[in-house]
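go over both lines:
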Amino acid sequence: MQSKDINTPPPRAALPKVQLQNYVVYIFFAVVLAFFAITIGDKGFLSVTNLFNIARTTAMITVIAVAMTFVISAGELDLSVGSIAALSALTCGLVMQAGFVWPLAVMAGLTAGLIVGSMNGFFVTVIGIPSFLVTLGMMQFVRGLDMRITYTNPIAISNPTYNSIFGSGSLFGIPSLLIWSVAVALLGFVVLKYTGFGRQILATGGNRMAAEYSGVNTRRIKFAAFLLSGAAAALAGLLYTGMMQTARFNFGEGAELMAIAAVILGGTSLFGGKGTILGTFAGSLLIGTINNGLIIMGLDVSEQMMVAGGIIILAVAFGKKPSN
């Protein structure tokens, strides 16, 4: 037998591989903040007022993106959220315009979102149509409905209590829109990470057949994800009305793309099975920070759209599964 050399050190345990993909949104966020702080810091980019402004203007995307994280983690997609937000805003505005109290108007707006969300869920889970096609068609249908409801005329929201709670108000100096976005993000984080529903969402998106063999009703889980997405989009519509103090048919245009970009940039897999609410929140703030910085720098709308498109492409690239 060969004698073992007692002076030979024991083999080292393999160090865990650091997946840079999981932290790219935070790295990118730090780089963007540093870039704008250096280039336009003299214009108040890092002022408390401007930072709160970034949080306010991205609150609606954050709310939509948190729910979108559940949908994408379940292996589906929802392109109708922007149209739902406008429908909720118009519904809420019309109910208040008819003389009803604002809590009833809020319930009506949220109900509108739940109805569209349930229709998306029905066509995807019961009829079996791919979610991309269902929600693309629903996006067009609901946007046309938004335009038809008021013939593209805006609806003024003059209730000060409503506008304060859902838009222009603050609590201890913190804007109400920021409070809404943080509250929704925290709730989404807890549900996705620490509840059975969150685990079933990830299992459904990761391997639907395996999840079903384990007793998960994947149809019910996906239906619930679309309901959640519809409700969150409706809440975003209420926040739009509170911030703008009006309801318009074009609220939420492009919100679906920004929300998807925030979700994928945050580290959620575009193919399902993996989701992170904290990353989504950071991704939403990153997009809002870039838009804010570009506006302060004086770039026109076309240039801002080009940058936004680049962000979406990067989001898809970072969300791509690495090849074996």
